Structures are given as structure tokens and as C-alpha cells.
């Protein structure tokens, strides 16, 4: 055992040394007579036990003990105070300051010294075990068990602490959110164990790229956060590019070569936020923007992006409430037979009668409903309302009136959609032939088994399927053969105007001729003039739709429309 005695009196140190020699405690004893020498020796030499006198150079035992503990490189050193006082309160002060034992100088003898050091060593061992246990539990509480980087709890604590620190030192704090693109697909394609290893791999990559002022955390799922503290100005010190460079090549996981793409969003305190919560929200908004831009991009938040996100967030929250409050309404646009001039069908179009913003058109909210999954419930509401209205019109309008209902691509993944439509149709005593399902050309690009199964089920149950916006550049002739389409609605952008070149007219003529040869029903959208109407009749279009006949109107206005001689 290597032992150090710290006392101002050489005689007292010698006395202690003689006592220690009468025990089997130590085989090496050193003495220091002042604080400077003691601290210097501690810096150089490891001591198993240090006996510290209660007063050296006017430093009491607890102050000297604190100075010594700061210099110790190991927690295995046992510290014993040699006290001038036997006062209970003083002894407790020494223990609380970190002493493993306290021995009154006036009671000192070899046997008591021996027992005290042995007890102090046992105390030191127990303290070390408790400290190790605490550190393990603390590490578990603050670190993600899968990737071993900081977890959400540690992130929240660090974020708040660094924001407060930035306030005091007038520095910037950066936050970068990192998200793996299509991580769900990785899990589905390779399995969750491989997905876990991908997360571990990315955590190691990011950790290996960090500089001194950067910390990485896993917030959950495939989302990571990087804190950049003590910045002189708002910049991310190329951490984004470092990550992208490291991910240029596929990673090897479980004998699989997987190309990782990420989206990143960055925000800064105080430039983009007033507190920790706002900083996190701003970085989230930037990451959302990055997802829209494309793979392997980093987006920085600004006021315009925040405003757009908050507007979208508000709409997403308001849609379910609007359904409960019956704020949505359907308007109907007539579709006219080119041959007879009679009303043959109508298209149901949703509107939002917003209590603040007035009548809101679908291009302001439908895409949000689709991206958020709210389109499933909203779409079912549209189906029910449209069929109810068709039922109510049975005694007023033509019994053979067809109701066209727009179905979002996302709705086609709803395995219960056809069953729901069947039940509502039967409830209102309608025939399948009275209902036309409108899909857009984008559906044809998602030629998945689920989409094809749903469309085939519609067709099998007797529902007509119309392809809307045909000619906008997505679909091909092959799609018209592959999908159970009975009607094609030619997009309004193809309708010739007075200034259109001859090739535009030829294009539409050729398109109509081709569709007729395929025995498909043709609807021309965008009929706004008598010339449009006459031209479409001449080239063989079956049905006509557009503002020339009527804009989309409420159910009451639709019932009052006079369309009998609209086509002369």
C-alpha cells in the first residue's frame, strides 16, 4: 500500500509514520508539509490512502479535502481526515465533503489508526460501487439502448441547458434534425433486425463526424438530432455535408448493400426561436421542408417556411373538427350529353364553408388531407353525402342520373372502401350503374397490387371508372388497357382556343378518335364557349362539362338549373 501523510508538522508526520509501521497497512509512506507539495505529489504519484491533517496553511480539512479530490485521477484512493476536533457536526461535515473516515488526533494510536483506515477503505470501495452503479443507471437513463447515443430525455435536458447558456454568453445554438428517408420500407424489405442495425450504423457514422461542440441524440424511430453549441454566428459548420459525404456509398448490413438517403432540417437560436421548444419546432419544420425538396437535402427554416408549415398544421388540425361541425359541403357540376343536350351526370366537388375564411376550395386542403391520412374519413363523408343527394334527386331529376365521385389515390389503399360504398349505395337504394368513380392519372403510376385490387373490385361490382385529367402527361395508352377504365375525361388544358395552333386541334381530334376506337366513353372538360361545345360535338365527344353550362353549384341551385336546350 502506498500512503501519503499531509501535515505541517514534520514531527507529527514522523509520529504517524512510526504508527503505520507498527501495522501491516503500508509498505511505502510519504509526507507533505504544505498544500503545494501535497498537490504536486498527488499529480505525480498514485496513493492508496491519504491522511489529511485538519489544518494546513490555514485550510481546514474540508477545503483541503476538496482541493485534493479535484486532483485525484482515481476514485480508488481512500481519504482520511486527521482532525483536531472530535465534534460530531465537524465529523459529518468531513464525511459530506468526501472523507471516507475521520480520526481525532488526540485519540490516535496504532490500533485505532489501523481500524480507521480499514473501515475507510471499505467505505471507499462501497462508495465506488455505488458511484459505478449510479453511472450505469444514469447512462441507461440518458442513452438510447439501441444506438448508445443520447436519448430523448438527454436531448431535452441538453437543449434547454444549451439555450440558457447561449442566452448568457450571447452565442448561437444550432439544431439539425436528421431523418432516414423511407425507413419503413427498409424495415419491411429487410426486416426489423436489419432496420435496427441500419440505425446503429448511422449513429456510428454521425458520432464519428462530430466535432468538440457537437452532440448527437436519437429522438426515436429513425430520427436523430444534432446540437451545435457555442457558435459565433448561425452556421452548421458543414455537419450536413459531412453526413451526406459519408453516405454517398451504400452501407453493408447483414450481407445487404443498402443505400441510405436522409433529409435534414436546421434552425438556430436566437435567430429562429425564442426558446428551446420553438427551436425544436423550427428544426422540425425545416426537416419537413427537406422531405418535400427531395433526397439528401438540408433545409434551413425561415419565416416563410414557418408560416406555411403553421398554416398547414392548422388545416390538418381543423379538418376533423370541420367534419364534426358539418362545415364541408358538396357542390355539383352538370355533365351534358353532346347528342341530346340532356343532363346525364354530375360531378360532386367538395368545398369547405370555413367560419373565418369563407368558402374554401379543395386545392387548399385536399392535398393536406391526403398526406396526413385524413382523406379516408373525409372521402367516406363525400361518398355518403353524394349518394344521399342522388337519392333525394330521384323524384326531381332523371332516374338515370349518374353521380361522379372523386376518389383519392390514398383511398384506394383502404381495403374496406368498396364494401363501404356498397353498403351506402344499398342504404339509399341506388344501382351501381348510377355511380361513377373518378380517379386521376397519378393513380396509374402507383400500379400496386392494392390499387389494382380495389379498382377491379369497383368494376366487378358494376361501378363505372372514369380517368380524370387525361392528357396532362402521366398516363399512357397501355394504362387504358391495364386498368378497368370505362370513361376518359379529357383535361381542360387540351381544349383549343381562338389562338391555338392547328396542331392543338389535330391533337384533340386524334385523341378522341383513338379513344372512340377503344370503345371508351369520352367527356370533354373545360367547355366554356359555344365554339368549344360545337367543336367537341363534331369530333365525336360523348359528354360535355364546363362553365358554359354551369359552374359547380349547391344542391339547391343544381335542382333549379335549366339545361334542356343547352346543346342546340
> How many helices does DSSP assign?
20
Straight-line distance between termini: 114 Å
Proportion of residues in helical segments? 40-55%
Question: Main β-sheet, in a few words?
Answer: 8 strands, mixed, barrel
* DSSP, total strands: 23
Say what oligomer this is. Answer: single chain
Mean pLDDT: 86
Taken as a percent bin, the fraction of beta residues is 15-25%
- Strands of the widest sheet, in order across it, are 15-16-18-19-20-21-22-23
Describe the 3D structure.
- This protein is an alpha/beta fold and 568 residues long.
- The protein has an eight-stranded mixed β-barrel.
- A hairpin with a 5-residue loop joins strand 15 and strand 16.
- The longest helix has 33 residues, at 110-142.
- The mean pLDDT is 86.
Secondary structure elements and pairings:
Elements: E1 2-6, H1 10-21, E2 28-32, H2 35-44, E3 49-53, E4 55-56, E5 59-60, H3 61-71, E6 78-83, H4 88-97, E7 101-104, H5 110-142, H6 152-169, E8 172-180, H7 183-190, H8 192-209, E9 214-220, E10 223-231, H9 239-246, E11 251-253, E12 256-258, E13 262-269, H10 276-293, E14 297-300, H11 303-324, E15 328-337, E16 343-354, E17 358-360, H12 366-372, H13 375-393, E18 402-406, H14 417-427, E19 435-440, H15 441-445, H16 449-460, E20 464-470, H17 477-482, E21 487-490, H18 502-517, E22 521-524, H19 530-539, E23 543-544, H20 555-559
Parallel strand pairs: 1-2, 1-3, 3-6, 6-7, 13-14, 16-18, 18-19, 19-20, 20-21, 21-22, 22-23
Antiparallel strand pairs: 4-5, 8-10, 8-13, 9-10, 11-12, 15-16, 15-23, 16-17
Helix pairs in contact: 2-3, 7-8, 13-14
Amino acid at each position: 500500500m502506498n500512503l501519503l501523510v499531509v501535515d505541517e508538522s514534520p514531527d507529527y508526520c514522523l509520529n504517524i509514520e512510526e504508527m503505520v509501521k507498527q501495522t501491516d497497512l503500508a509498505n511505502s509512506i510519504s509526507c507533505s508539509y504544505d498544500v503545494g507539495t501535497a498537490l504536486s505529489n498527488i499529480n505525480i504519484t498514485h496513493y492508496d490512502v491519504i491522511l489529511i491533517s485538519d489544518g494546513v496553511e490555514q485550510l481546514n480539512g474540508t477545503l483541503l479535502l476538496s482541493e485534493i479530490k479535484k486532483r485525484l485521477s482515481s476514485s480508488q484512493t481512500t481519504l482520511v481526515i486527521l482532525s483536531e476536533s472530535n465534534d460530531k457536526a465537524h465529523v459529518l461535515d468531513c464525511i459530506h465533503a468526501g472523507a471516507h473516515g475521520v480520526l481525532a488526533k488526540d485519540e490516535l494510536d496504532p490500533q485505532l489508526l489501523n481500524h480507521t483506515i480499514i473501515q475507510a477503505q471499505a467505505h471507499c470501495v462501497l462508495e465506488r460501487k455505488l458511484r459505478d452503479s449510479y453511472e450505469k443507471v444514469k447512462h441507461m437513463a440518458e442513452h438510447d439502448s439501441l444506438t448508445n447515443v443520447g436519448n430523448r430525455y438527454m436531448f431535452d435536458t441538453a437543449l434547454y441547458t444549451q439555450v440558457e447558456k447561449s442566452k448568457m454568453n450571447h452565442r448561437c445554438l444550432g439544431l439539425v434534425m436528421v431523418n432516414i428517408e423511407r425507413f419503413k420500407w427498409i424495415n419491411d424489405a429487410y426486416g426489423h433486425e436489419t432496420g435496427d442495425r441500419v440505425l446503429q450504423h448511422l449513429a456510428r457514422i454521425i458520432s464519428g463526424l462530430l466535432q468538440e461542440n457537437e452532440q448527437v441524440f436519437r429522438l426515436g424511430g429513425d430520427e436523430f438530432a444534432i446540437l451545435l453549441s457555442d457558435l459565433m454566428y448561425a452556421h452548421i459548420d458543414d455537419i450536413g455535408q459531412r453526413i451526406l459525404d459519408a453516405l454517398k456509398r451504400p452501407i453493408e448490413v447483414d450481407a445487404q448493400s443498402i443505400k441510405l438517403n436522409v433529409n435534414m432540417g436546421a434552425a438556430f437560436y436566437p435567430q429562429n426561436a425564442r426558446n428551446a421548444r420553438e427551436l425544436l419546432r423550427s428544426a422540425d419544420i425545416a426537416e419537413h421542408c427537406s422531405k418535400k425538396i427531395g433526397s439528401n437535402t438540408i433545409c434551413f427554416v425561415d419565416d416563410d417556411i414557418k408560416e406555411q408549415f403553421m398554416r398547414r398544421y392548422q388545416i390538418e388540425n381543423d379538418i376533423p373538427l370541420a367534419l364534426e361541425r358539418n362545415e364541408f359541403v358538396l357542390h355539383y357540376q352538370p355533365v351534358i350529353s353532346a347528342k341530346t343536350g340532356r343532363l346525364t351526370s354530375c360531378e360532386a366537388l367538395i368545398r369547405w364553408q370555413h367560419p373565418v375564411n369563407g368558402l374554401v376550395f379543395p386545392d387548399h386542403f385536399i392535398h393536406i388531407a391526403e398526406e396526413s391520412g385524413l382523406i379516408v374519413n373525409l372521402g367516406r363523408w363525400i361518398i355518403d353525402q353524394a349518394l344521399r343527394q342522388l337519392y333525394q334527386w330521384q323524384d326531381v331529376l332523371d332516374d338515370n342520373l349518374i353521380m361522379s365521385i372523386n376518389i383519392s389515390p390514398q383511398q384506394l389503399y383502404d381495403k374496406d372502401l368498396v364494401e363501404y360504398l356498397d353498403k351506402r349505395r344499398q342504404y339509399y337504394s341506388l344501382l351501381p350503374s348510377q355511380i361513377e368513380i373518378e380517379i386521376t392519372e397519378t393513380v396509374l403510376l402507383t400500379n400496386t397490387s392494392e390499387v389494382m385490387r380495389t379498382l377491379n373490385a369497383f368494376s366487378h361490382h358494376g361501378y363505372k371508372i372514369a380517368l380524370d385529367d387525361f392528357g396532362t402527361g402521366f398516363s399512357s395508352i397501355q394504362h387504358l388497357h391495364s386498368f378497368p377504365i370505362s370513361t376518359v375525361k379529357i383535361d381542360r388544358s387540351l381544349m383549343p382556343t381562338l389562338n391555338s395552333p392547328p396542331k392543338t386541334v389535330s391533337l384533340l381530334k386524334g385523341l378522341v378518335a383513338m379513344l372512340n376506337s377503344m370503345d371508351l366513353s369520352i367527356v370533354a372538360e373545360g367547355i366554356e364557349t359555344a365554339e368549344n361545345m360545337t367543336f367537341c360535338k363534331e369530333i365525336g365527344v360523348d359528354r360535355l362539362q364546363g362553365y358554359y353550362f354551369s359552374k359547380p353549384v349547391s344542391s339547391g341551385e343544381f335542382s333549379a338549373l335549366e339545361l334542356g336546350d343547352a346543346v342546340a
